[in-house]
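Can't paste images in this forum, so I'm doing it all in text. The chain is below; anyone willing to post the predicted structure tokens underneath?
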Amino acid sequence: MRLPSLDDLDLNGKRVLLRVDFNVPLKDGKVTDPMRIRAAVPTIRALVDHGASVICCSHLGRPKGKVDPKYSLTPVARQLADELQMSVRMTEAPNGPPEDLETLKAGEVALLENLRFDPREEANDPAFAQELASLADAYVCDAFGAVHRAHASVVGVPALLPSAAGLLLQKEVEVLSTLLKSPKRPFVVVLGGAKVSDKLGIVKSLLERADNILIGGAMANTFLAAEGIDMGKSRIEADRLEEVKKILAAAREVGVQIALPDDVVVAEEFSEDAEGRVVDVMKIPGNAMALDIGPSTVYRFSEWIRISSTILWNGPMGVFEWENFSNGTREVAKLVAKAEAFTVVGGGDSAAALAAFDLEGEVDHLSTGGGASLEFLEGRPLPGLVALSQ
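Text version of the structure:
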């Protein structure tokens, strides 16, 4: 799939509608993690340098098609202005209105209010797409975290305007395509997170490409249960056990090692203050639940990570937000950051973990899209990319 680039557009003196992913965490009216905003800055600067005026648009949270002040992008506009070191005009509505933007000059930047304040965004309503398209002369998508959604600003607008991929989107596609087509070997994949159902597609896809797949987090519980291990009160997805058994058998058949924890940190309650203790996976008490991988598992995982040439990490090894159960994720994050390999970290909780441990700048590529990166690596066609390519 060839995506048109900024070089394919005539930008001088033109207005560009830039779809970005500013779905960032807020607290007390301030952005607490500006990673996604900073990731869009190079594309905004490139558009400005080419003489364009830039109208950014994004979603934030799940306001369910209604105006909700707690999901306003006003704090994001302030953060964007700080990152750009220039003023950013904020509109009152997701579609402008157009008169708010009439005086926007070349080199200036505006931000539309939360697209999801209008129910037509998620419904991919053609009329809403037309309203957005009428604000600009060209369209650029730089929202990798949203390209797996068939929403009006993602798939409707590019059908109406000359369109291209932004610098961030181009890089995301390039890096993830390398993992699918020509990763340097050994290629080690580290997967974690809460739900095994979210990751089975990527495990199946990577059986054809990876040399080792290391699994931690709550998703490992279901894999261990599929191997006949009693997981006590640990979270498992019983309806996925048969599918997991088939994946384990397929991995053995193709010679890919799926490494599972041999020890875990358990607690009797799912609580931040619960006291954790390390146990062998064969000796999990019936009244306890696994909330992190143990030190023996960290050591085993480190041996594979150390000899790898390419690493993909997606998903924490436990409840890393709680100090008592953060060690596994912290140690894996440090191992990935220090590895002499090409390192790619998926978005979402993995990115949050890197930020929590001050390791964001220590990996080669930190994806801005958790769900989108998973679907891309599963080989699924992503609606936003298909719309741009056409």
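The two ends are 10 Å apart (CA to CA). The first strand starts at residue 15 and ends at 19.
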